[in-house]
Amino acid sequence: MTLVFDPDTHEYRFDGRPKTSVTQRITHAGLLGAGAAFYSPATAERGTAVHLACADYDLGRPVTLPEKWAGYLTSYTLWCDMTQPAWSAVEEPRYSATYDIAGTPDRLGTMGGRDVVLDIKTGTAADWHGVQLCLYDLLCDELPPRQRRRIALYLCADGRMAQSVTFTSDHDFHQAISLCHPPILPKGQLT
Questions:
Q1: 70-83 and 41-58 helices cross at what angle (nearest 10)?
Q2: Alpha carbons 98 and 40: distance in angstroms, whole number
Q3: Could you give the CA distance from residue 103 to residue 23 in angstroms, rounded to a whole number?
Q4: pLDDT tens digits for 144-166?
Q5: Cα angle value 21/22/28 (rounded, 5°)
Q6: Alpha-carbon distance 189 to 191, whole Å?
Q7: Residue 169 near residue 127 (C-beta atoms within 8 A)
């Protein structure tokens, strides 16, 4: 059984069959709200370039990033220097048969000995980020849901250290489960 992700079309296929992504579930549920108006080709280009640069940094590869966005990478590296995360997965597509959802968590690993799922943001905070992180948590079958810290990391364009926000809301998690079709719950989970 194989998962294939096409970054150009942002499509996931598991054993050749298309799978709904975290982004699609959030969009179809209308959770983006007014935030959808802020997405543009320019912000998408910036986000993609910064994500690739941060991944290259974490994987020890040469980093290339246009100077106009260099502050975002500095923001990220300062945060990494301070928190010392240990990433086990960097931008690795995943599929959960249990929840029938696909996606690519930005980072999985540990911080201070605790498991964490992290999403890197080049924009501002939004209410749906907590739901997004819960959906990414559901993609990771190594641990039962809700065992990981769910962190959104907001990078600063001016190079100041990134600001992390930990999401703990039960509401986010229940909303994430409701977006999974069908909502198959592991025995003893959220009954």
A1: 40
A2: 33
A3: 8
A4: 677 899 999 999 999 999 999 99
A5: 85
A6: 6
A7: no
What one-letter code names the amino acid at 2?
Answer: T
Segment 18-48, tens digit of pLDDT:
999 999 999 888 898 765 555 678 888 999 9
State the DSSP H helix or E strand holding residue 171, giving kind and residue range, or none if neither: helix 170-179
Which tokens sit at 13? 């296929």
Contact in structure between 39 and 45 (CB atoms under 8 Å): no
Give 116's strand partners.
Answer: 109, 149
Rg of the chain's alpha carbons, rounded to an integer? 16
Query: Is the overall model pTM greater than 0.85, yes or no?
Result: yes
Provide CB contacts within 8 A for 79, sequence distance 6+. Answer: 153, 161, 162, 164
**Residue that is written with structure tokens 């065992």 in the block:** 147
Angle between helices 129-138 and 170-179 (to 10 degrees): 60
Please list the ranges in the chain whose pLDDT falls under 50.
183-191
Give the DSSP letter string of 111-134.
ETTEEEEEEEESS---TTHHHHHH
- What are the tokens at 112? 């201070």
For the CA atoms of 15, 94, 8, 14, the dihedral, rounded to the nearest 10 degrees, stands at: 10
